[in-house]
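TICKET #2291
ISSUE: user wants both folds in one file
ATTACHMENT 1:
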Amino acid sequence: MRQQWTDEHHMRQALDLALRGLGKTTPNPMVGCVIVKDGSVVGRGWHDHLGGLHAEAAALRDAGDKARGATAYVTLEPCSHQGRQPPCAPALVRAGIARCVCAVGDPNPKVGGRGLKILSDAGVETVCGVL
């Protein structure tokens, strides 16, 4: 029960961050990301505007080396394709994220489970469906 509470707590933080992109990311979704290591938030990010850094990239930049071994809480499955920005799932792997918790899978057919597969194939524990 403690892990579920912890996951929900940090996902709420990520959801709050996602709201900072309200009205600025269309047609892309609003996304927030919180990176947590040893119980402390070490990185925060959100998709601030269309064409800008994705939430995961912004949170990884904020966390720096502290991302290694941490958990990323992301409101949407990390992307797996090149668009205006590079894909986030491989960036999380390169940063050494140990666990990725997302609220929902990405309904975009360019992603649709591929981001989570990239992570799990690299040994990252993945959880989807939190809040």
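ATTACHMENT 2:
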Amino acid sequence: MLTVLANRTYRNLLAAQVIALVGTGLATVALGLLAYDIAGADAGAVLGTALAIKMIAYIGIGPIVGAYADRLPRRAFLVAMDMIRAGVALLLPFVDQIWQVYVLIFALQSASAAFTPTFQATIPDILPDEAEYTRALSLSRLAYDLESLLSPMLAAALLSVISFHWLFGGTAIGFVGSALLVLSVTLPRSPAKPREGGIYARTTRGMRIYLKTPRLRGLLAINLAAAAASAMVIVNTVVIVRNTFGFGQREVALSLAAYGGGSMLAALALPRLLDRIEGRTVMLGGAMVLTAALATLGLASEGMTATFWPVLLVGWFVMGMAYAAALTPSGLLLRRSAQAEDRPAVFAAQFALSHACWLIAYPLAGQVGARFGQQMALFVLAALAIFGVVAALRLWPARDPKAIEHEHPDLPENHPHKLEHAKSQAGHAHDYLIDDLHANWPR
């Protein structure tokens, strides 16, 4: 898996991602503690609302950036977004009102909504070989797990000597470090070509391709199941550990680390697993385990007290493993399902639509937990995950070839791609056109 690090450009970008995510992880811990400091037992509702605002920023900004990313110089744009995020992080320690939390979170996450899909769409251009890209996805998953594992552990150590407000300074340092590493490499120009049409046509193109591709509709349903589980962990861990168990800040960080540890272990095993087992099987299996874990914890949490903490740690660990299995191969699906020129728009669509799932799950986790208790929150989110799994089974065809057959009616008949496609279509009589530039799936 580490052979892909021989590519200097990818290696530096991965390092930038790791540093930025460690800083973001510190902010996640600090934000939960800040919400508890301001709102007490209602921290889950405040945090759920703050994270819902984050999702609104992602859903609104992501498609716009995806539509115009081909016109932007990638390196300068990524560096600018990092610096904006660093500046906002430096303001968070001075917050003492709930509305201030909401405003700054929107500003921070708007910059992230511009940065992340642009960054993700750059990696396939750096690593065109599918085997290398598959390994890069696992390394990227490990980088995200550092946000859930290393950051809480680092936060737990730092909180023994400093106030949680200082953790936001670590977030700013992470974004500055990311910007410097992006500056250290030359990024390939986007292969996307200028598209005709107004802002509506451009901003919805990725969505239209995504929602007309069966495997990607299945991916969206899996995103919903994964969001249900991750929302329970991210929103309600601080309330369960601080309010129900009566523990301190370090126990909050360690509980979040259990979830990240499970995800990291799964990410290490996934490249070899995906060589032997189809991605659909792995992803659906992960979503099913997430659903079962939520329901099991709900049944076991009657009269929850501090003695339940070891059970919670095991449950979070298992859910972390299943979450990684459910979502890590998603980048591979996106790469297989889009032409190079459509890739930025499709990655932006995945970014926006997956966060629409979290927009449902985050406030649901916070409000149900605050109003009806944590056991009810577990049951409600388990029901949401069940819906996602059933939808994925229905939407994602069991027969899922790696290369989707497709047509390009807007290209001239003598275009090389169309001539090559005509040869590949010989013998395929049961195809239907999904999109003006996209896929024909066998019936």
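RESOLUTION: both attachments delivered.
EXTRA DETAIL ON ATTACHMENT 2: The longest helix spans residues 8-39.
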